[in-house]
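Usage

Read records sequentially. Each one opens with the input sequence:
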Amino acid sequence: MSVAYRRARAEEIERAEELVVRSINDLTERHGFGPMATLRPPQFQLFSWNDDPDGLWVAEDAGQMLGFAFSWVCGDFWFLAELFVSPGNQGGGIGNELLKRTLQHAQKMGAAKKALITFTFNTVSQGLYIRHGLLPRFPIYFFKVEREVLRGRLQNSQLRCLPLQNTASHLQSLVQIDAKALGLSREKHHRFLISNKAMRGVALHARDDCIGMSTLVQTAILGRSRWCSQTPWTLHSGPH
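and closes with the structure output:
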């Protein structure tokens, strides 16, 4: 087998996401959790490809896609959103080569902070990431709630729940939240998500101050919204 590695093309990203879903479900089924991933339109992936195509890579052999990697950068922060090799082609070094190329993306963009999320039971991938200096930091628990349930529970509180709008005021509020919670700005992601009706979220206000936003926006940005019922680890490499 002669595997070639190259930047992904926009027209094949949907096929790449099919590989991602197949790989996730193969992993979760082998560990007794059953299928967890479902295929969704790759809107955020396409947005990221248009913004910075160097973050999306495929591995192929004779026209057959064997693996896919997708990372994005905001400021000095690099995030590995997806790295998957198709079932039947794992264990041959494809994931390692794809990871090398996404890390080169981080280096090119000057990203000193790096992070990703993976399942706690995915020890093979954890070993791969650790070998590249991405070390486990802490577990993250994902929760989700329907918007109307959240709105109902806020009725007797001092908080107001308002739809996020593509306005300077709302965008600035989201930038401030990110700066305080994460230490970086994801304004370009917020602009995309707010303008995308399928991913639009809500903001929580106390009097006139925006204090938080729905997890719909947060998880969609990370490309991890389908991972909401298990406990993954974050792996992080600090400044070099």
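Summary fields computed downstream for this record:
- The CA atoms of residues 78 and 107 lie 9 Å apart.
- Helices lie at 13-30, 43-51, 94-108, 123-131, 147-153, 168-181, 187-195, 215-222.
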